[in-house]
Amino acid sequence: AKVRHFKWTVEYVYWSPDCVEHPVMGINGKFPGPTIHAKTGDTIVVDLTNKLSTEGLVIHWHGIRQLGTPWADGTASISQCAINPGETFQYRFKVDKAGTYFYHGHYGMQRSAGLDWWHKSVHEQEVGLNSIPFRWINEPQSLLINGKGQYNCSLAAHYNISSSISQCKLKGGEQCAPQILHVRPNKVYRLRIASTTALASLNLAIGNHKMVVVEADGNYVQPFEVDDIDIYSGETSHSLTKYLPLMGTPQPPKNYERRILLLNTQNKIDGFTKWSINNVSLTLPSTPYLGSIRYGLKRAFDAKPPPEKFSSDYDVTKPPVNPNSTYGSGVYMIRLNTIVDVILQNANALSGNVSEIHPWHLHGHDFWVLGYGEGKFSDGDEKKFNLKNPPLRNTAVIFPYGWTALRFVADNPGAWAFHCHIEPHLHMGMGVVLALGVEHVNNIPNEALACGLTGKKFSKQKQKH
Ligand code: C2O
Ligand code: CU
């Protein structure tokens, strides 16, 4: 196994991802950032310097479980303090298994600078979401593949075509020129696919060709042929509800020890539009959970744990009777090694006859997807769970008005985010935090603790010396 060392600087640069120039967050002057090639067992070390000058920064390594390194998970307010302008933070973690992964910002709405592309800055989008009246971000202006798209060219993304729109006349050297994959006939090629969208659910096909799916979220599956794949934000490879894990994939334990029901609703708080889980809209505290729990700083977040279920007479087919919700920063405290079932329950949004798709992503663990169903989950649905060969994933979708059942063994000590991967939804409160075995976490780097109450605690200690 190798140690692979990288030095990355993040700063705003002018770029034309979709042929329209805007400031974008670049890594080492480029957009998108560099690809890391590594093998199972390798250690990745990234010295990340924030040169954004106006905002904090963290990077999350989506799909890497961070076994034994929860402080390297890159979630602001959860695993670490945001890296301040001018500061450097070192991410050091092991590649725990082969697969296709991606990385992205996990502070504010920084991830919205990804595969779907808006001409409005992330900051303007954020202000709109936090305004009365509410301003939705709407559809992205472009879709980018490997950072390249063509705004307003629709099907005209060809070279040297006579187009009336000057930006659509591409020669091939432009930043927005579509990437060409040169292939030979009758050869088999591997494509690594990740949906880094902030909003869109996509479908991917290769004209006149079939694809064989072999891996999803870092887990091999029994190969199967498809014409196209549906892919939701946060998924690598794809999300058919019916596919089989490869032989040798661990099976889920037969019983759960704790079941958490999570009702997903759209709500209002003081006139602002929010998303809530069991009527709590997540607000992140200024002291990251990992440090505050490790050092017993109880005032850092809501002492009251969030609810384990929702009222059994809630009608998921109608807008909420009482749309009022509350902010909360409480944590699901889970005993280490507990077998946990999570039932994600979808419901009607604020307006009638609207229920959206939400791709939920768990940090620090993979889970088995035991089943999907329509309507409200009931105990009888448990009989239909697939315990024989359920797929192992880190992201799973809840379909409109439906439920999705997940099982995982909470065996990786840390404080972990579990949330809808649609960036504006997370920003509006659609997530929860799980904490387990934090007392076993040692060697949290000081830089990860240098804010909020942990910051105060450690700077006081320093002064005493
Ligand atoms: Cu890719 Cu917490 O997300
Ligand atoms: Cu969502």
Automatic annotation (TrEMBL):
<dbReference type="Pfam" id="PF07732">
    <property type="entry name" value="Cu-oxidase_3"/>
</dbReference>
<dbReference type="InterPro" id="IPR001117">
    <property type="entry name" value="Cu-oxidase_2nd"/>
</dbReference>
<keyword id="KW-0677">Repeat</keyword>
<feature type="domain" description="Plastocyanin-like">
    <location>
        <begin position="320"/>
        <end position="434"/>
    </location>
</feature>
<keyword id="KW-0325">Glycoprotein</keyword>
<keyword id="KW-0560">Oxidoreductase</keyword>
<dbReference type="InterPro" id="IPR045087">
    <property type="entry name" value="Cu-oxidase_fam"/>
</dbReference>
<keyword id="KW-0964">Secreted</keyword>
<dbReference type="GO" id="GO:0005576">
    <property type="term" value="C:extracellular region"/>
</dbReference>
<dbReference type="Pfam" id="PF07731">
    <property type="entry name" value="Cu-oxidase_2"/>
</dbReference>
<dbReference type="Pfam" id="PF00394">
    <property type="entry name" value="Cu-oxidase"/>
</dbReference>
<dbReference type="InterPro" id="IPR034267">
    <property type="entry name" value="CuRO_3_AAO"/>
</dbReference>
<dbReference type="InterPro" id="IPR033138">
    <property type="entry name" value="Cu_oxidase_CS"/>
</dbReference>
<dbReference type="GO" id="GO:0005507">
    <property type="term" value="F:copper ion binding"/>
</dbReference>
<dbReference type="InterPro" id="IPR011707">
    <property type="entry name" value="Cu-oxidase-like_N"/>
</dbReference>
<dbReference type="GO" id="GO:0009506">
    <property type="term" value="C:plasmodesma"/>
</dbReference>
<protein>
    <submittedName>
        <fullName>L-ascorbate oxidase-like</fullName>
    </submittedName>
</protein>
<keyword id="KW-0186">Copper</keyword>
<dbReference type="InterPro" id="IPR008972">
    <property type="entry name" value="Cupredoxin"/>
</dbReference>
<keyword id="KW-0479">Metal-binding</keyword>
<feature type="domain" description="Plastocyanin-like">
    <location>
        <begin position="10"/>
        <end position="115"/>
    </location>
</feature>
<dbReference type="GO" id="GO:0016491">
    <property type="term" value="F:oxidoreductase activity"/>
</dbReference>
<dbReference type="InterPro" id="IPR011706">
    <property type="entry name" value="Cu-oxidase_C"/>
</dbReference>
<feature type="domain" description="Plastocyanin-like">
    <location>
        <begin position="116"/>
        <end position="240"/>
    </location>
</feature>
<comment type="similarity">
    <text>Belongs to the multicopper oxidase family.</text>
</comment>
<dbReference type="InterPro" id="IPR002355">
    <property type="entry name" value="Cu_oxidase_Cu_BS"/>
</dbReference>
